[in-house]
């Protein structure tokens, strides 16, 4: 029982006691009580109740004594002056005077004496009794947090020193106001939204300098993470250069321990697990069994070692697993047939208008084609039954050229590209044979329910028989394209890409496949069924190798929030570099990476790890730098959501967002043109607008020039800038168009090689150009979305990335990504930007960046095809360019 001691007032007369007073226990003054009083005095106990008791007692005693003394004194004085002079007068006068004087003196004396006495006696009157019944309970549970409530100790004096040192040692690179906010951030978490040309890399190096040099955080407690090997190398070089100005001699190898890729960082985690010290990353395997870091986190190409392992697993499964073999057979047959076409597409509607007229000459078309193929020695084809079976399309009778029973597929022939372009189905017929065959093919794609094999070239004529032989004798090797994908991939690579996409979204492959809901007739259901079988066997095969092999996504999953216990096996040496973390290109992270980062900081907090500094300890911190307008890897599973909602994903005691809006690369017209397109994407970081700060180009603002696709004009424009000595980027939407561009500009490239100026012209895709710049940039082709992906829409929803009310979240994200890709491409330009567009709308786009060009705005110059370029470039040299009918698709 808990007891308490309190001081109470002096006892009242017995008649004044009430029920509460009966609980008090007064004790006479004694040695024990004096001892208690001295103890109370020693600790300075304030006994207000004793003081009040003493005052009341003293007042009563003093008053009574004063009255008595005054009365006696007055009586004596009256007797002395003579009773005879008037007893009554003297008595009254003396009594009054005596009473007054006696009261005053007696009251004062009595109060002092009584107060002292009562106060001392009151000290000795204590009450001992049980206190109120306490509330019984255990300590509460602290809410789990990732970051403590602390601040970097950057004082005003230290800030002044940093500013002074930078002004002295980097006089030509003074940070802007926004850059200083990033460099001097004091909060444990900071998200930096850095627009195109904002100088974020240099600013990140200066932030690193503040952490190491001025705050004293050792490099072993610091990590900068980038996405690509190239950006890692560039950043590490800047670290060596800047730190040298402050007296640090950092070697090349040491700088690469500070600046890491996500791949190298997670690999150190995996090798810390028991029995995994020599685990090998699948994506980095080399022919000799070694490993080599390469590529981008989102663009790791499969080499010979990877393909060999994938194919070994594929062929073994095909031989031993009847279910897998049956599924592959169905997928193979589907891959041979023509891709289905939407009957409402412009191409299908155009062909539909020709259906009746086309049906009248269809037998002539069949006759002409079979004669051509026979003359070439390619018809008939072994394995294809000659057949003119009638297929009714749109109420009209059309004929096929053959039938493959084993594949249950019709065969129709096309016009080989070696044949003359002016051939006709019959004399006097218009249009030409190629147009008739194209329309017939489209009608079969849009309206025939059976599989149709279209042989468009003599080289392909052997494919059906090879398909039959493969199905009977060997494991087929073929390409497959999921609905909504841009291009087909070899089946094993298609498996790997699909599984990687799920894992990048933070999904478990097997759980996600079981949760998918696709239409009954969708052949992609068979693909994902086969993938589940393949992925289980493949990952186990890798793990059982000697040494064990893992994909990077497997490593991220092992150390995700789903498996926090695995992080407890990590040594402090692996965790400590993550305590002070800076991440570049944060807009490109995926859910699996985010989960790993969150789980890592949770483990750091669980262990209560601190970070030594020059002063008081620091604790876990995260700075994320990126630009939501440059998020262009959603097709691989990344999302700008994690940057836009950074403060929700990484909750912190004091969220801090820095907007770096100054563009130190381009002039304002380039910035405004790019932003006009990208601002159509909803839900981004509010308040963004690029502000041109490159004084070198401020006085030479040239609108972005938009032209029809014309290879001759492109060659003229590129050569003009080459002759002027300008750096040049030729950017394309796809690798195939990039190769076309190289062929079309072959003469200029030969000249550049001869003049040893090849580095002046670079050919890249829009995606691979991020981070680069050139004085003149040539964009070949639109940024658009032409397909819808049912499977990825399903997976996107499973990952929780859909906006409310949007059942096709992936399609929506890709529409927005098309606009962001255009923004990235345009903002590579320092001064000149040319955009060549193919206005062919036969394949309508769901979204197209060029739709948002407002020709009336001063930052656009939309040029008619016949109008020559008017860009003011000096030292122009005219060279004839070859004609081309090549189109961009």
Describe the fold and architecture.
With 889 residues, this protein is α/β, with parallel strands linked by helices. The chain has five domains: 3-130, no CATH class; 156-279 and 552-658, 3-Layer(aba) Sandwich (Rossmann fold); 310-331 and 483-546, Arc Repressor Mutant, subunit A, CATH 1.10.10; 340-474, no CATH class; 668-862, P-loop containing nucleotide triphosphate hydrolases (Rossmann fold), CATH 3.40.50. The chain contains 32 helices and 28 strands. It has a six-stranded parallel sheet. Strand 10 and strand 11 form a beta hairpin. Helix 7 crosses helix 8. The protein starts with a strand and ends in a 27-residue tail after the last strand. Mean pLDDT is 86; it is low at 1-29, 39-59 and 874-885.
Summarize this structure as a short list of keywords or feature phrases.
about 900 residues; about 45% helix; single chain; Arc Repressor Mutant, subunit A; globular; six-stranded parallel β-sheet; Rossmann fold; about 10% strand; alpha/beta; 5 domains
């Amino acid at each position: 029982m808990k007891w308490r001691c309190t001081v109470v007032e002096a006892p009242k007369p017995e008649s004044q006691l009430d029920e509460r007073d009966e609980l008090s226990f007064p004790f006479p003054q004694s040695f024990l009580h004096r001892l208690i009083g001295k103890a109370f005095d020693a600790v300075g106990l304030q006994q207000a109740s004793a003081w009040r008791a003493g005052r009341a007692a003293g007042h009563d005693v003093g008053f009574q004594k004063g009255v008595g003394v005054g009365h006696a004194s007055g009586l004596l004085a009256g007797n002395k002056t003579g009773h005879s002079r008037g007893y009554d007068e003297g008595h009254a006068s003396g009594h009054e005077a005596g009473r007054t004087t006696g009261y005053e003196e007696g009251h004062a004396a009595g109060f002092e004496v009584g107060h002292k006495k009562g106060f001392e006696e009151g000290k000795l009157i204590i009450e001992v009794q049980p206190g109120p019944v306490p509330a019984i309970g255990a300590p509460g549970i602290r809410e789990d947090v990732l970051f403590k409530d602390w601040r970097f100790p950057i004082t005003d004096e230290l800030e002044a020193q940093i500013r002074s040192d930078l002004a002295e040692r980097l006089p030509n690179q003074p940070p802007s106001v926004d850059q200083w906010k990033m460099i001097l951030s004091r909060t444990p978490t900071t998200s930096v939204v850095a627009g195109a040309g904002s100088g974020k890399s240099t600013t990140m190096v200066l932030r690193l300098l503040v952490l190491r040099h001025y705050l004293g955080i050792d490099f072993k407690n610091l990590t900068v993470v980038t996405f690509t090997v190239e950006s890692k190398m560039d950043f590490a070089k800047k670290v060596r250069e800047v730190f040298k100005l402050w007296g640090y001699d950092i070697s090349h190898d040491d700088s690469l321990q500070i600046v890491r890729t996500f791949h190298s960082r997670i690999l150190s985690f995996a090798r810390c697990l028991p029995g995994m010290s020599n685990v090998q990353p699948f994506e980095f395997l080399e022919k000799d069994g070694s490993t080599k870091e390469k590529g981008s986190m989102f663009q790791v190409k499969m080499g010979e070692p990877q393909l060999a392992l994938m194919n070994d697993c594929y062929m073994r499964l095909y031989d031993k697993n009847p279910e897998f073999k049956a599924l592959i057979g169905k997928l193979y047959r589907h891959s041979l047939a023509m891709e289905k076409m939407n009957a409402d597409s412009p191409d299908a509607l155009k062909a539909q208008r020709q259906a009746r007229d086309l049906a009248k000459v269809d037998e002539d078309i069949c006759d002409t084609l079979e004669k051509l193929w026979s003359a070439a020695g390619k018809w008939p084809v072994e394995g294809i039954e000659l057949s003119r079976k009638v297929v009714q399309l749109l109420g009209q009778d059309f004929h096929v050229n053959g039938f493959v029973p084993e594949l249950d597929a019709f065969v129709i022939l096309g016009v080989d590209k070696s044949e003359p372009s002016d051939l006709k189905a019959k004399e006097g017929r218009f249009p030409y044979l190629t147009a008739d065959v194209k329309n017939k093919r489209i009608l079969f794609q849009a309206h025939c329910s059976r599989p149709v094999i279209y042989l468009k070239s003599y080289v392909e004529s052997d494919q059906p028989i090879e398909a039959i032989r493969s199905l009977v004798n060997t494991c087929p090797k073929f390409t497959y394209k999921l609905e909504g994908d841009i291009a087909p991939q070899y089946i094993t690579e298609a498996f790997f890409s699909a599984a990687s996409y799920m894992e990048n979204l933070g999904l478990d492959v097997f759980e996600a496949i079981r949760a998918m809901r696709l239409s009954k007739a969708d052949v992609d259901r068979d693909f994902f069924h086969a993938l589940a079988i393949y992925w289980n066997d493949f990952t186990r095969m890798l793990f059982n190798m000697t040494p064990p092999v893992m994909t990077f996504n497997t490593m991220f999953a092992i150390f995700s929030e789903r498996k926090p216990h695995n992080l407890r096996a990590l040594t402090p040496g692996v965790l400590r570099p993550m305590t002070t973390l800076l991440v570049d290109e944060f807009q490109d992270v995926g859910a699996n990476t985010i989960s790993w980062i969150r789980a890592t900081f949770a483990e750091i907090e669980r262990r209560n790890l601190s970070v030594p500094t020059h002063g008081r300890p620091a604790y876990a911190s995260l700075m994320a730098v990126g630009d939501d307008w440059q998020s262009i890897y959603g097709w691989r599973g990344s999302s700008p959501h994690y940057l836009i909602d950074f403060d929700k994903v990484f909750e912190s005691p004091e969220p801090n967002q820095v907007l770096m809006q100054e563009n130190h690369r381009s002039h304002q017209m380039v910035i405004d043109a790019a932003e006009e397109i990208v601002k159509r994407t909803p839900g981004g970081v509010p308040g963004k607008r690029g502000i041109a700060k490159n004084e070198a180009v401020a006085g030479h603002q040239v609108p972005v020039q938009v032209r029809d696709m014309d290879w001759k004009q492109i060659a003229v424009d590129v050569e003009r800038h080459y002759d002027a000595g300008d750096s040049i980027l030729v950017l394309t939407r796809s690798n195939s168009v990039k190769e076309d561009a190289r062929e079309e500009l072959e003469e200029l490239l030969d000249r550049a090689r001869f003049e040893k100026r090849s580095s002046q012209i670079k050919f890249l895709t829009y995606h691979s150009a991020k981070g680069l710049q050139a004085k003149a940039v040539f964009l070949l082709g639109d940024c658009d979305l032409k397909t819808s992906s049912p499977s990825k829409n399903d997976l996107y929803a499973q990952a929780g990335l859909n906006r409310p009310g949007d059942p096709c979240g992936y399609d929506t994200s890709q529409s927005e990504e098309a606009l962001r890709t255009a923004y990235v491409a345009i903002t590579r330009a320092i001064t000149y930007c040319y955009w060549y567009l193919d206005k062919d709308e036969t394949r309508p786009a769901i979204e197209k960046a060029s739709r948002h060009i407002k020709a009336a705005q001063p930052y656009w110059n939309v040029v008619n095809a016949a109008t020559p370029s008017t860009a003011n470039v000096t030292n122009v040299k005219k060279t004839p360019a070859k004609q081309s009918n090549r189109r961009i698709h």
